[in-house]
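Fold it.
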Amino acid sequence: MRICTITTRILWMLFVMSALATTSGVGGENAQNTGQNNSLRNPKYKIIGGGVGLVIAPGQDKNAQPFGKRKTDNMAREIEKLRKDIQNIVGTPKTRSPQQKMFFLKLKDLLVLANSGNALAQFELADRYNDGLRGVKKDSSARFKWLLNAAKNGHILAQNLTGFNYLLGEGVEKNVQQSVRWFWQAAQNGNYFSQYQLGQALESGRGIEKNLPEALKWYKKAAAQGHQPALVKLQLLSPPRE
């Protein structure tokens, strides 16, 4: 199972933003050389600031003729949408959660925290090893090591992902009993993905003894949090009303 990480999403958004910001269109020097005066070349955009703490501002290419107003406005809206999407993922300096703040730490500082038992730092390290970026090479075993450490230290999302890693054999030998153990832990802590997975295990007898009433109990907990597959399960498994 491929987990879409914060880093992957940010890098993709920055790539698209860069492509939008540097589109040269047609025209410019070539248009001038061929005598065409109806150039559609767009005014360039400049990126102010580095990384995700950026501001997009219209630049000025003195040799370029402007895009049609509609095209320019559409590009500006797309860039603004991407900027907001990135902010929603990593927050702003004032609104970042403790987990989001880990994203901006240097590797050496992150390792100090992770080795001291900080679950947030351990989860961030797992994320970096998943991507193979920001100072480390991609390594599924190292990813699982730090994910498991974070799970043991109470990181709920790490507990959920540890369950998936054991279930699918990603970075560790497949072990359905261990997957149930970690899904149960995360489910007890309110993670509805794990509540649903625990329900599935109890319904099918995957790594645990079959128990339909108990499966329904966990499906109900997940459904109460808006998990759609759990709602479907409840409709299929609940006895019909007379």
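The first helix runs from residue 6 to 22.
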